[in-house]
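To: structure desk
From: M.T.
Subject: fold request, one chain
Message: Could you run this one when you get a chance? Sequence is below, nothing fancy, just the single chain.
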Amino acid sequence: MPSVVLFNTLMTGFCKLGFLDTAKSFFCTMLKYGLLPDSYSYNILIHGLCMAGYMEEALGFTNDMERDGVGPDVVTYNIIAKGYHLLGLMSGAWETIRKMLSKGINPDSITYTMLVCGYCQTGNIKEAFKLQEEMLSKGFQLNTVSYGVLISSLCKIGQVSEALRLLYEMESIGLKPDIVTYSILIHGFCRTGEVQRAIQLYKEMSLKKIIPNSYAQSAILLGLCNKGMISEARTYFDSLTEREFPVDIILFNIMINKYAKLGCIGEAIQLYTRIFEKGISPSIVTFNSLIYGFCRIRKLEEAKRWLYHIEAHGMLPSVVTYTTLMNAYSVEENIDSMIELLLEMKIKGVEPSHITYTVLIKGLSKRLRLQECIQLLDHMYVSGISPDQITYNTLIQCFCKAQNLSKAFQLHDEMSLHNLQPTPVTYNVLINGLCVYGDLKDADRLLNILQERKVILRKVAYTTLIKAHCVKGSTDKAKSLFCQMRETGFEISVRDYSAVINRLCKRGLIIEAKEFFRMMIFDGISPDKEICAVMVEASNQGGDITFLCLMLCLMIKLGLLPDQSYC
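Reply: Done. Structure tokens follow.
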């Protein structure tokens, strides 16, 4: 006579294999034999269904349990909550826990761990830490998984020092962080630019006999490169690659990419040859970096030849490969080569991205081939490729330069129709277009409208208008805008004052220039030699001997030696 234990074993096996229908048929067979399923029997099926995402059916079995007098236990509720958690439905998980509590069943450490993980994965770190406190107050302790998830979440939001505190807290209660936990922290420190702390943690990990993985090594190497510490990065890279341990292509790619970005193509090629000496195969990322390097130093024919190297290694150039080359041709205004590459992409089945089209539009706009730019935009929508703000900003700038401001504003309106929020760059371009090619009053009106709408603008929007009003001689308006810029909270530099004073002096508006110079001194900004020279020259030409003497004294006080011709 078969037993409940036998059926439970069979159902467990088939659920693990994903054969849920077979597992359910054994459940029915058990009932036919007159055997009463226990809570473990139900939990097996509920677990299988939840892992497969069949939440409704799993909840149905939970109701059957209650109907048959087999009360769902904490394990049942944990399984249901985990099912919701896997689907990203934390509200469902919470509802399950509330139902469990209403039936007088207390959560266990598994319940808490799952909820902590769920909150972390949905970005609700605050609630996760509240749960941690609740766990500790009820005598439960976080496990390695919970700590790992909390540490990872803190690193993602840049709170790496707090994450490190949790690591030491883990160790203080006898838990041993693994290579994954250390790697997450090392990567977190590198991402926030604290490379030395990452290296220190790397050493701590090594002293504990935890063998670093390529994730941790590449994080440190990338961190050193991003900090501009190329010599240190190369020393570290050599220390890793000269060992007899297996080396990852990622390490080579990081160094090659950095050399390529710096224009040091010789060093990049040298590392490329070492890849084969190590018995490693290059990746498409390797080739893309090299192509970028040649493009950066404007050796475009050499860059294009690397397409053949890619194919020789049995790979297909990626959309990044082609877009990188096309961007370089765009800078050279070589439209024919750009179109040729686009056709080659299509022949080889490489789908252009929105970035590819944006690069094409940028190239065409330089030649003022505006109609073709619009045709490309239309083609993007027809092809199911959504342009982004950069695409539209490129087009808007193109039409501003062509002095077709009505079309530029039409494209701005079109962005909203396609649910694209104009960026501060969009408004910078439009304001600049109105200042240079349109009516300055329209530029002022646009700024006022944007301020009323609480649209966030960059400092350049103000400086563009200020310079335009200085050129026009509208010093009161320029001063008003300058004050607005200060009140908005932008950091004002000597360059901002210099740009205004230079323009005022060129128009012979010396009194107004002096006013801005006094504002600068009042703001505690020390003038540089260039701006002092401009003011000295203006005072000299205007015959203002008193102000000239004051300027010369100020220059001597600041250690800016004046030209002897003024002395």
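Reply (cont.): The mean pLDDT is 86. Let me know if you need anything else for the meeting.
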